[in-house]
Each structure stands twice: as C-alpha cells, then as structure tokens.
Design goal:
Helix content is 20%, strand content 23%. It is an alpha/beta fold. The chain folds into two domains: 139 residues, 3-Layer(bba) Sandwich (FAD/NAD(P)-binding domain), CATH 3.50.50.60; 66 residues, no CATH class. The strands form four sheets. Strands 1-2-7 form a three-stranded parallel sheet, with helices on one face. β1, α1 and β2 form a beta-alpha-beta unit. The longest helix has 14 residues.
C-alpha cells in the first residue's frame, strides 16, 4: 500500500471542493481532493453567480476565462423571467438585466455560467496550484484522534492510490489518507462535498481539523 500524508483532505470534487482546493493553492497549501464521480458535473446547474463569486474568480485570474465561457450559452445582459413556454407569454420578471444596479459596488459583474462549464475550469486551476484531484474515489470512513484524522478511501475502480501513515489494515481496494501532526503540517484539513451535512474537528490549533460532509 502506498503511503501518503496530506495536510488537507477535501471530500467532494464539485464546485465547493474544487474552489476550496484552488484557494488553498493560492496560499501554497497542497490538498488532496477525492470525488466518487468519474469527472466534473455533467448537468447545467447553478447558472447564476453573484459578485462575491466573480471577485474570487478575478482574484485567481479566472474572471476573463469564465466570462468568455459564459458567452457560448448566455447573452451578457440577460435576465431571469418566468414564461409559459419557450414561445409563450411572459408570466413574471425576476431580474430584468443581470447587472442592473451593481455599478459602483464591485470592480466585476455578475455572470451566467453553467456548473458543467465552470467545474472543469476550477479543476484545472486547482491542479495548476498544487492540488491533487482523484475521481472514482470514495471516502468510506473517518477516524479522528489526538494526532489527526485518518480517512479510509475506496478506489471504485479497484486500484490503490493513497495510503495511511499509520499503516491501516484494509481490503485490497481500500486505501487511506492520513492528515494531521504525522504529516508535519500545521494546516487544517477540510473536507467538502455536494451538500454539506455534518462536521467534526480536532479542536486544536496545532493539529489537523477535518470537516466531513456527504451528498
């Protein structure tokens, strides 16, 4: 079994997990992202992003790329309305123009871009900044002690890819990632996923903390 320590383990490689890995990378903090799906999102969800998100993308140098990607699907001054059908009458207008009234509040602007378009951009940038993204890998268990956190990982394709500094005993297709004082790092370990539901932390500033979530 290959042994691998990581200061940050992120469980869930969707919008939140990939963004977390990317922002950690801007601080020169490496991370391991595990995602049970085979790749990034395949459905066009989460199409409207506000100023705060765009300011973050601007900070990491992705604003222009994301805006260009959005133009393949959306008009830059589009709005949000309710209609009977694509050719039917308009029932209500929620946003007449996406960036109406935001002038003077931010150097950037809101944008329409779909999740299946944005996630690959985030994944690429996170990898460029030092993150390791592993798809088809599922977090199957989490154990925490005074020294850190050990997460048991199942490689869904049956190939071992990560190990535990403690040498945990596990089935042939199960591996483990270890984060905490054993890795020699004082950075916290965080985990995020497609819909956070619960969390646990070590509660000490000089050891790894973990936030475990599940879809």
């Amino acid at each position: 079994m290959t042994v691998q320590d990581t200061p940050i383990l992120i469980v869930g490689g969707s919008l939140v997990g990939l963004t977390t890995a990317m922002l950690l990378g801007t601080l020169d903090v490496p991370s391991l992202v595990v995602e049970r799906h085979a790749g990034t999102a395949i459905h066009p969800r989460a199409g409207h992003f506000q100023l705060g998100t765009m300011e973050m993308l601007r900070q990491v140098g992705l604003e222009d790329e994301v805006r260009s990607a959005s133009l393949a699907t959306y008009h830059p001054t589009g709005g949000i309305v309710a209609v009977e059908s694509l050719a039917g009458r308009e029932l209500a207008t929620y946003v007449s123009e996406l960036n109406e009234g935001v002038e003077g509040y931010s150097p950037t602007r809101r944008v329409f871009v779909n999740q299946d378009v944005l996630e690959p951009i985030l994944a690429r940038k996170a990898s460029e900044l030092g993150a390791t993204v592993r798809n088809r890998t599922e977090a199957a268990g989490l154990e925490q002690d005074a020294d850190g956190v050990t997460v048991t990982l199942h490689d869904l394709d049956g190939v071992a890819s990560a190990g535990s500094a403690r040498g945990m005993s596990s089935p042939p297709t199960a591996t483990a990632a270890r984060c905490g004082s054993a890795s020699g790092s004082r950075w916290p370990a965080t985990a995020s996923s497609r819909g956070a539901s619960r969390s646990t932390s070590a509660g000490t500033a000089d050891r790894c903390c973990a936030i475990a979530t599940r879809a």
